[in-house]
Specification:
119 residues; mainly alpha; elongated
Length: 119
């Protein structure tokens, strides 16, 4: 391997972060709004959704806050490694991103099994 060869990015190193960073920021804003609405006792769906999942307000609020922080951190790390042109670290973030998306899907499926209708 030649010196400086590890800094060359392939096309998927550019395409994946350009697509996922706005999506992560959108989901991060959504999860933060759920956290804010839950903790501030706002009326409406997002403010009382914790009761539908049979969780306490604190449990549901911090679940959403942790997801917000992880998504923001992942978007920031992808942007940083894209600017630094570090392909190895970008590949690691792609792997972490795949594991995180899988865990979010599994946790949301689990939360749906706990859903208690209040109607």
């Amino acid at each position: 391997m030649k010196i400086g060869e590890h800094n060359k990015l392939k096309s998927y190193h550019w395409i994946i972060p350009i697509l996922t960073i706005p999506i992560f920021l959108l989901f991060s804003a959504n999860y933060f709004w759920i956290f804010f609405a839950t903790m501030s006792n706002r009326s409406g769906l997002w403010g009382s959704m914790y009761s539908y999942y049979d969780l306490t307000k604190t449990q549901y609020g911090f679940y959403n806050l942790i997801l917000t922080l992880i998504l923001c951190g992942l978007a920031l790390s992808q942007l940083t490694f894209l600017i630094k042109k570090n392909a190895y670290r970008l590949n690691k973030t792609f792997l972490i991103m795949g594991i995180l998306i899988g865990l979010i899907i599994l946790s949301e499926i689990y939360m749906k099994t706990r859903f208690v209708g209040k109607g």
